[in-house]
């Protein structure tokens, strides 16, 4: 079955040509990429009022100012922690509720827009575009409009974040579902299961680890997002942060306390979600 | 190559996968390790290749304990004893020749390998090895596009690219149909005879072990229960290895369906109501 010498030489030459062609394309792409990056950086730096290199050494001035003041007033920090905990809980609540509603809506949209799984295959582009729109509109715009209509408070922030979460998670969920094995679905179809039953028993158990880890990551992102929305008047810890930052010197210990609380929260959420995911993937015993 | 295995054990918690295993190998034979699944065959091969660490014991290769090697020395040993896996363990999205060239990963500069920059000599050698195994024309195809038997031959080509003294084969034919299984076993035998490389293969069927091996080691529950030539592997010895009762028939370990007598009783129980 082995080739004659001439045939082997032929085969080797053609593979070498194939390798050289691939290397040429790869090298050309790399050169183009480096060129674009360089020219883009130059353009951006020229348009910058200050200039990258001139401003670089000043980058740490602001954090240094904040931390030096907080260091002097370190006795205030425990009191500030306690003071900000209620607004932190409000922020966490906004994030949790919006992640929950967003993830539920995302699950439905994701299954409806996945090739091969959809209930109405012809409608998949429609659901996909719906999710694109949800991702495209910035949360802060939706929140501002809703605050104008409904007045300030946590509800507009919740709706705004849930809207964005639906679009973002829907895309990730749909990609996870696309990679799921369709054999169980076929097996369930063969016993006469309906669409919802096929998804519930055939797809959900397969995608649950991925979906839940995406949703938990989104929860972390949403904590930050709901803190930011506090800046535009939806309450929570963001509102306190805005007040402290605008006050400037004299309130920097509050700024540090708020950042420390946010950091701790994210850390705890990350730890818990890690455990939960390990439990889900490896079963009860692993946790 | 002189291989001296002394009291090698592997325990997972309180459960022993391999328990005080000892034997010596000399020269370049074709060695089969047989036993039912869970007997510790795979764990032993993985320890020999240093994919898994042993709990205790030593394996002397030409006098040097390979279980104690670390870092560069450990990688040098791994490039000396190539491994062929049951599920081929190729990189499915890369082409066949690149997969074969991976056999050189331990010996070439890292940056060059990361960008897939192999010398033309290396590439020519990879193609020559593929040609020897009869699949040179598959070189530019993705590994995942090949059939199971072809993929296993690519894996053997990767092993040959390492120019190893020992080839370890962990159930090399368990995922293949009978015809491809024969091609793969014939290939391993040819490498053993023509190149004088030692081959240690985990097998779970007796007939394969009888046909290809110069020496058979039987394992049961992590212990060596048989060590001898295929001729010494009597029906009683096989019964010990597989832990079967008096009704044990050798054909039950074969993959050849025709070897089994039709079970009328079972069929009657299923169909009669």
Give a summary of the structure in a few sentences.
Chain A has 287 residues and is mostly helical. In chain A, 80% of the residues lie in helices and 0% in strands.
What does this structure look like?
The complex is a heterodimer of chains A (287) and B (273). Chain A is mainly α. In chain A, 80% of the residues lie in helices and 0% in strands. Chain A is built from 11 helices and no strands. Chain A starts with a helix and ends in a 5-residue tail after the last helix. The model of chain A has no long low-confidence stretch (mean pLDDT 87). Chain B is built from 10 helices and 10 strands. In chain B, helix 5 packs across helix 6 and helix 6 runs parallel beside helix 7. The longest helix of chain B is centred in the last third of the chain and has 18 residues. Chain B starts with a strand and ends with a helix. The mean pLDDT of chain B is 88.
Task: Give the arrangement of secondary structure elements.
The complex is a heterodimer of chains A (287) and B (273).
Chain A: H1 5-47, H2 52-56, H3 61-72, H4 77-112, H5 124-136, H6 139-150, H7 154-178, H8 183-190, H9 195-229, H10 237-247, H11 252-282
Chain B: E1 2-12, E2 15-26, E3 30-34, H1 41-48, E4 56-61, E5 64-65, H2 71-80, E6 81-84, H3 96-101, H4 110-114, H5 120-132, H6 148-161, E7 166-170, H7 178-195, E8 198-203, H8 206-212, E9 215-220, E10 223-228, H9 235-242, H10 264-271
Parallel strand pairs in B: 3-8, 3-9, 6-7, 7-8
Antiparallel strand pairs in B: 1-2, 1-4, 4-5, 9-10
Helix pairs in contact in B: 5-6, 6-7
């Amino acid at each position: 079955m082995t080739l004659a010498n001439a045939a082997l030489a032929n085969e080797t030459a053609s593979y070498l040509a194939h390798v050289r062609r691939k290397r040429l394309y790869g090298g050309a792409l790399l050169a183009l990429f480096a060129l674009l990056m360089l020219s883009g950086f130059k353009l951006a730096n020229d348009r910058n009022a200050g200039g990258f290199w001139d401003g670089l050494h000043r980058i740490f001035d602001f954090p240094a100012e904040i931390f030096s003041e907080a260091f002097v007033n370190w006795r205030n920090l425990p009191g500030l922690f306690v003071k900000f905990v209620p607004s932190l809980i409000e922020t966490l609540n906004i994030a949790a509720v919006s992640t929950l509603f967003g993830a539920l809506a995302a699950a439905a949209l994701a299954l409806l827009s996945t090739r091969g799984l959809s209930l109405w295959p012809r409608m998949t582009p429609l659901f996909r575009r719906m999710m694109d729109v949800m991702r495209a509109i910035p949360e802060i715009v939706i929140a501002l409009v809703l605050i104008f209509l409904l007045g300030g408070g946590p509800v507009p922030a919740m709706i705004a974040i849930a809207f964005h979460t639906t679009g973002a998670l829907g895309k990730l969920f749909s990609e996870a579902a696309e990679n799921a094995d369709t054999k169980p679905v076929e097996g369930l179809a063969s016993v006469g299961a309906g669409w919802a039953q096929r998804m519930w028993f055939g797809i959900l158990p397969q995608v649950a680890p991925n979906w839940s880890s995406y949703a938990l990551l989104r929860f972390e992102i949403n904590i930050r997002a709901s803190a930011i929305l506090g800046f535009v008047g939806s309450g929570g810890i963001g509102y306190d942060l805005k007040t402290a930052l605008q006050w400037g010197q004299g309130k920097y210990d509050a700024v540090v306390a708020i950042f420390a609380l946010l950091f701790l929260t994210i850390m705890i959420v990350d730890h818990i979600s890690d455990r939960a995911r390990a439990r889900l993937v490896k079963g009860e015993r692993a946790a | 190559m002189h291989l001296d295995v002394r009291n090698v054990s592997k325990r997972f918690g309180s459960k022993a996968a391999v328990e005080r295993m000892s034997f010596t190998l000399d020269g370049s034979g074709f060695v089969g390790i047989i036993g039912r699944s869970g007997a510790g065959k795979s764990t032993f091969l993985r320890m020999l290749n240093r994919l898994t660490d042993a709990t205790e014991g030593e394996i002397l290769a030409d006098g040097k304990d390979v279980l104690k090697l670390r870092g560069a020395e450990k990688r040098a040993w791994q490039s000396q004893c190539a491994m062929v896996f049951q599920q081929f363990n190729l990189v499915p999205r890369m082409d066949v020749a690149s997969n074969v060239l991976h056999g050189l990963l331990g010996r070439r500069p890292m940056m060059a390998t990361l960008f897939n920059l192999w010398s033309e000599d290396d590439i020519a050698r990879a193609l020559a090895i593929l040609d020897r195994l009869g699949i040179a024309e598959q070189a530019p195809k993705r590994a995942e596009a090949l059939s199971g038997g072809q993929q296993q031959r690519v894996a053997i080509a990767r092993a040959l690219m390492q120019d190893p003294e020992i080839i370890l084969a962990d159930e090399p034919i368990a995922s293949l149909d009978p015809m491809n299984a024969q091609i793969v076993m014939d290939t391993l035998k040819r490498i053993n005879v023509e190149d004088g490389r030692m081959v240690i293969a985990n097998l779970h069927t007796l007939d394969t072990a009888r046909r290809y091996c110069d020496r058979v080691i039987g394992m049961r529950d992590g212990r060596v229960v048989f060590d001898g030539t295929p001729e010494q592997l009597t029906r009683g010895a096989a019964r010990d290895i597989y832990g079967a009762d008096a009704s044990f028939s050798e054909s039950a370990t074969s993959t050849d369906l025709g070897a089994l007598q039709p079970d009328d009783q079972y069929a009657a129980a299923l169909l009669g109501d």
